[in-house]
Amino acid sequence: MNKKITTTSLPKIPDIVFTHGITSFGASHIEICKVLTKLGYNFHYFDLPGHGAKRKDWETHKFTFNDMLKFVSNYIDTNIKDKPFIIMGHSMGGGVTLATCTKYRSQIKAVILECPLTPAVYNHTEEKDKLNFKDVPINIAKYRRIVKENWRKLRVGIFKWLSKDRCFAPLLMNIGKSEALEKIQKGVHSINAPTLLIVGEKDKVIPPLATSAYLQDNISTLTIQVAIGAGHNPFKDTPQQYKEFIIDFLNKINS
Questions:
Q1: Under a CB-based contact definition with an 8 Å cutoff, are residues 200 and 212 in contact?
Q2: d(CA 31, CA 54)
Q3: What's the pLDDT tens digit per position in 176-221?
Q4: In what side-by-side order are the strands of the sheet with 42-44?
């Protein structure tokens, strides 16, 4: 793809708040930050607690999903305040983004999700390359039971992370056993703004079909884009395609 990335006018909503995924860091998405900054957006990014430059903090504190959520909320309250903004997240950061939507529903004017954490991560029907959505429980309590029953069967990519970054194991366990999934689902149900979902065609961590079906069933304003050839990191695997998805989406909500 050689499509020129442009916007039709200066952004009506200039602030974009980005949240990265587990084991990652804020500057992981620096390339899209540079592109959007040139187009007039204020791209806010940061290291979540225990991530990036703060990784050593795991020695004294075992962070939870609620710690991630509280950090993002404090950042918004301090730096965005009452202004409208666009919220964006990758992987676990996508789950934090969704959970954040409940509190800031009136301020959020668009949502961008890249391979986001949702309850659909525990749907294993994609092993046969097809989705049977009726097998995805609506009751969050059932999701929690599935987590407990299938913990050892979770995605290979997650355990590759843990083999290299064992300090994040408590956070991952907390996401599966805490109220994180309820908060994410509540956030999903609160969304009334245009929402872009980018999934990686070959993602082995966040199931693309189950994730797409789950969000499409719950968000009427959803646009789905599949990054062909990409795994869990479309921003890195197929960067040009990834940029085009985001710029096209922003152009539409800016028109």
A1: no
A2: 22
A3: 766 888 999 999 999 999 999 999 999 988 999 999 999 999 999 9
A4: 42-44, 15-19, 85-90, 108-114, 195-200, 222-227
Residues in the chain: 255
- Residue 158: in which H helix or E strand, if any? helix 156-164
CB 116 within 8 A of CB 218: no
- The pLDDT > 70 percentage for the chain reads 79
Q: Which amino acid is at 141?
A: A
Q: Structure tokens of 89?
A: 């997240």
**Contacts (Cβ under 8 Å, ≥6 apart) of 128:** none
Element (H, E) at 79: helix 65-79
Place of tokens 């995605």: 155
Report pLDDT digits (tens) over 4-25. 344 446 788 999 999 999 999 9
C-alpha–C-alpha distance, residues 242 and 234, integer Å? 6
